[in-house]
Design brief:
Radius of gyration: 18 Å
Structural class: alpha+beta
Order of helices and strands: EEEHHHEEEHEEEEEEEHHEEEHEEE
Number of strands: 19
Bound molecules: zinc ion
């Protein structure tokens, strides 16, 4: 199953990229499920069962006619990030790969849609394409072997990072540097894990304009999705609709010589196989439409 946020309303999506059709959930369910995409996490199991009975291909309208795409999960209560979770990225950062996951938060106000503009607060903003996991069920002490059972779906995310603020001080300020407005675009759709042929080996890429800057696979996660959920839920109550940004592969701008950061006019494209892509245009902060 695929869902999206079209014009602020929850839709079921079917069809190949470019030719997607969609059904408005609130209308098709006769009001059983609300239009607000965040509300679906109140009864995810019920929604999955109902959604399976809808023939989206036969009854849907072109997705593009249903409004601009917003974040499939617009108001998560908790947004986790994981640092240094690919060995090539740890190596380019000249840091040792951590024995257990290094966790920070992206404040939920940074969440935005797949095609939102990125207002640049400085000339030190970097890119990080990431697989984002959406938690479906309230969860505590989930064993790794059962962790995928609490996952509602996955989506593409960008963990945009203002490196000067992020790395300022001891300890550094990861959460602040990664939480400027629009620093957490997600989308374009949420895909349930059963739709993915290889849920633990998804190819992922990031381009800045036409240049391929990151080319990885979630098969290379140091701490895979199952272990991240086990580790997080050993401490935190995971809540329905929470997001986990799982980490970025090598190829970020900070690691280049000289470093390369985003400038107004740059377009960042972030893609994961089987899910889709984000396209975020960089603008000077003052010119941005927040
Ligand atoms: Zn990251």
């Amino acid at each position: 199953m695929r869902i999206a946020n079209a014009g602020g309303r929850l839709v079921l999506v079917a069809g190949a990229a470019g030719g997607e059709v969609a059904v408005d959930v609130e209308q098709a369910s006769g009001g059983r499920f609300a239009a607000d995409p965040q509300d679906v996490w109140a009864d995810w199991a019920g929604f999955r069962a109902w959604g399976a009975s809808v023939d989206v291909g036969a009854t849907g309208r072109p997705l593009g006619e249903l409004g601009d795409l917003g974040p499939p999960v617009p108001r998560p209560r908790q947004v986790f990030g994981v640092a240094l979770n690919y060995s090539d990225h740890a190596a380019e950062s000249r840091l040792e790969a951590p024995a257990s996951a290094l966790v920070f938060t992206k404040f939920p106000s940074a969440v935005t849609g797949p095609y939102a503009e990125l207002p640049l607060p400085s000339d030190s903003v970097d890119w990080e394409v990431e697989l984002v996991v959406v938690v479906a069920d309230a969860a505590r002490h989930v064993p790794a072997e059962q962790a995928w059972s609490v996952v509602g779906g996955v989506t593409v995310g960008q963990d945009f990072s203002e490196r000067e603020v992020q790395l300022r001080g001891t300890p550094p300020q990861f959460s602040l540097g990664k939480s400027y407005p629009a620093f957490a675009p997600i989308g374009p759709v949420l895909v349930t894990p059963d739709e993915l042929a290889t849920r633990d080996a998804l190819a992922m890429r990031c381009w800045v304009n036409d240049e391929l800057v990151q080319d990885g696979s979630t098969a290379n996660l140091i701490h895979p999705v199952s272990r991240l959920i086990a580790q997080l839920s050993a401490v935190v109550n995971l809540l329905p609709g929470d997001l986990i940004f799982t980490g970025t592969p090598g190829g970020v701008g900070m690691a280049r010589t000289p470093p390369r950061y985003l400038a107004p006019g740059d377009v960042v494209t972030s893609w994961i196989d089987g899910i889709g892509e984000l396209r975020n245009s960089c603008v000077a902060e003052r010119a941005a439409r927040l």
